[in-house]
Structure formats: structure tokens, C-alpha cells
Hints:
CATH topology of the domain at 14-327: ABC transporter transmembrane region fold
Number of strands: 10
Radius of gyration: 35 Å
Strand order of the largest sheet: 6-7-8-3-9-10
Amino acid sequence: MKQDALTPAASGDTWTLARRLWRDWVRPYRSTLAITLVFILGVAGSTASYPLVINWAFERFAANDTASLAWIPVLVIFVTALKGATLYGQVSTTNRVASAVVRDMQAAMLDRLVKADLLQLGREAPAALAQRFSTDLTFVQTALNRSITSLIRDVAMILALLGTMLWLDWQLALVSFLLLPVAAWPIAAIGERLRRTARATQQQTGDMASFLTESLAGARMVKTYRLEADVSRRGQSVFESLHTLRVRAANAAGRVEPILEALGGFAVAIILVLIGWRLGTGGSTLGQFTGFVSALLIAAQPMRSLGNVNAVVQEGMAAAQRIFAILDRAPDIHDAPGAVALDAQGGAVTLENVTFRYGTGETALVNVSLHVPAGKTVALVGRSGAGKSTIFNLVPRLADASEGRVLVDGQDVRTLTLSSLRDSIALVSQDVVLFDDTIAANIGFGRAGASRSDIEAAARAAAAHEFITAQPEGYDTVVGDRGGKLSGGERQRIALARAILRNAPILLLDEATSALDAESESLVQAALDRLSTGRTTLVIAHRLSTVRRADLIVVMDRGQVVEQGTHEALIAGNGAYAALYRLQFTGDAA
């Protein structure tokens, strides 16, 4: 099974992972756990009282003590009521702690992911990452619940019952003690195998979530190209792999119960033989026998639960390992020691001999030098994969250059605080990102604390006010998942209003009008022209008609700048740009 793409897998055995889970996540709730422990002691004490009540009752029966018979039901009711009350308290406080830990881990993972480098996030499908917040943390929560319930409560119950057994018949109790460790070795071996299988199962579950997300999101393409059979076939392969892992995990976990049952039967058989012998020799009374057997039988349930908890804990630790892999991966892009705020003087952008390589070693930019004067518009053109988007990622430090420097107003971006740098940049992209919130909120993300009047002014500047006010609830209309309730042109104008509201000196336009119809493109282009005025603007465009008025056009190919100049100069030069222009408008590359 492949390793998670976002981060290297966190290492550590079960004990190491469990210790970290306690230290970092459970220990802050130790006061609640202390209350839980009090309830657990109540459960254990009341459970251990059952055999003593039974022993006392049978001793009274044997002595024909009718005066004490009325106390027997009172004692039974008291013991059962005490156990019920303490059991409820234990379950309630345990669930509260486990749920709080899951909440804290979800918040920490989200914080880590939103701060992760763009390239890190791109290595793993969003659906697979989302699965960490649901399936993986469900395993962790179950493991926490069962650990407290079985490893603490059940152990306490067993110890209390063993104390009762010692009180009733210490010789038989010692024989029972010697038989208990027999099951430990096979259960431990099964648990280690189960943890490996659980880790593979959780990875495969993430792959399945990614497959389902992309298959259902691409339904139009699937139907148009008649790929239903292919998707179903791929799905069958994914489901079969997951089925195989689940069966393997179930078989491993299923071995625990038979082992415990067989060993338990063997132990009970030996105990019964010894009890029979002691009764025959007068070494025990009927009350002791009944109480001892009751304690032994009552202990069977928590012992069986204790044996089965290993499977749940191993699944939880496998899930925790995947979660820690996210939490342990610090972003490569961060404020350098002594970073200073950007002293914005107009937003001039300069690349000095910049080379960029991905972690795989693939080179995206080779010794690129480029200067975008403050307040000017520079267009990046070229075939897909030429390196245009990489330059866009370098300016706001979504990635760092492998060699060379990126400067804003003469200041190396690596020496600046990320907050001040990114506050000086606005982005309008072809792939509009809208959240399932109101129109006003989506525009307001451009500047924290913006007033309603500022938001509406930005919408007017983006030619969006008219269509917004025509919505059922105006600016308070919820746009739906990824803005699905709006058209492409409407989504683009909301994104443009967001950029206008930001009022940043540097503007990045990434194919901002390429997916629009003629009417929407005209409205958006007019708004973009107004927004670009007086701002340093970098434009990526495949449609060369949109960049003819740029102050400078930079032609890129295979990560290098091959020529630059105005539209007229480049056409006259009859180079790479002229060839692209002829190909796009006449279909003739000659």
C-alpha cells in the first residue's frame, strides 16, 4: 500500500503512539479523567460486591438464618443501583473526554493543513485528507473510549474480583492468577498484525473517497464520453481491495474471541475440579464455592473485553499514526527569523535569475529574470507547462525559488513576513473559489472587517451589484457548494469584487476571463481594466486578444523567457509570439 502523499508516515510502536496521544491530547482533561476514575472505582467495587453478597446469602441459607433473609434483596438492589449510577457516570465522562480530544485534533489538523505549503497540499487528494477528519478520528475516538473502559475499568473490575476471590479462597485464587497470562502472547501477536492491516485499510479508504469524489464530480464528462463501464470497473477494483483488507482485519480480530473462549474453558475446568476436590475434603463451604464461581464467571466478561480491546486499540493507533503524520509536517514556507513587514512603495515585482525545481527534481523555471515596474501590466504567455503559474506562485511565496531571488519593491520576499507580503497581493483566477456562505461574506473575505457599504461598493465596481440585488436574498443569498447556485460569470464577478475590496498594490490575473461567455467577459474585462489601473498587474492569458494592451508581454517556453516586448514589437519581430498569434487567429503557424 502506498504511503500518504502529504507527509512521511509518523513512526512509533503502539506504546509510543499511545504515550504521545496521552501527553499531547488527553492529559489536558485529566481533571475530568480523575472524576472518571472515581466512577470506575465505584463500578469495580460494586461489581466485586456481587460474589460477597452471594456468599453471605448462601451462608445464611445454610445456617437457616431467616431473620437475615429480608436484607438479601436490599443488598442486591443497593449494589445494582450503585453499579448503574457509577457506570453511567463513567460512560458519560469518558465520552466527554474522547469527544473533546477528537475536536481538538480536528482543529489542529485543519490549522496545520490551511498553513501547509501549496505544493504539499497538492500531493494528496482533498477527499483523502478529509477522510482523516472523519474515519481516522472515529477510530481514535473508539480506541480512547475502549481504552478507558477496558484498560482501566475492566482491569479495575478484574482486580477487585480477584481480591474477592482471594478473600473467599486464596488457594483457588492463586491457581486462577497463574492461568491468566496464558492468553497474553497470542493476543499481542494478533494485535501487531491487526495494526498493519488497519493502517493499510485506512489508506485504502482514503483512496476510495478520492475515487468516489472525482467520479461523481465529473459526472458530466463520464456520461458524455460513455465512461460509466470504466468507472464501474475501476470502482470494483477499489472496493475489492478494501474488501480484502477488511476481511483480513476481521479475521485477525476474530481469532481473539475463540482463543479467549478456549483458554477460559480450560481455566474453568481446572477450577471446577479443584473446587470439587476441596468441597469433598471439607476445605470449602457451599457459600464460598458459590461466591467464588460467581466471581470467576463475572470476571469472564471484562477479561473477554480486555482481550478484544487490543484490536480496537491497534486500529486507533494506526489512525493516530496517520493523523500525527499531518501534525508533524511543518510548512517549508514560513517567516524567517527577523522577518520584517513589506515597505510597499508601488508593488514593483522583480525576478533575478530564478530557477525553480519541484521536490521530484523536475525543473519548472530556468534562470528567469523579469522586472514588472510599479503600476504597469505585464502579461505572461506561452504554452501550457511553460512556467507561468510557477511565477505566480513565487510572488506571494506559495513556493520558494530554488535559486535566485524574488523581490517586491526591491525587498527579497524571503525576508518579509508572509502576512505583509500577501496583504499586498490580490488574485483573480479562472478557477473561482467561493465558500458555501453568503455573497456578502464571500466578497468580504477580501479584507477583514470590511463594512457592508465597502462590500457593496466593491460589487458595483465589479459590475456585480445588479445581479446580486436580483437574488432572492440579495447580498445575504447563500451561494451553495463552490458557488454552484451562480453562473460562471456571476462567480467570476464576485471573485473580482473580492479583489477590488482588497485594494492591494499587486494584482495577479490568472486566465480570469477565459471561461466566460461574450457578455460576461465584456463586463468582467471592463472591471478588470478599472482594477488594474495604477496597480502592478501580472496576467496569465492563453487568449492573446486579452493582453494586446499590456505594457510588456513576456513569452515563456519550457521554463525560460524566450522573448519580451510590446504586442506591436513582438509581432514585428516575427518570433515565438508572432507564431503563437498567427496560430491562434489564423490557424497558420508558418
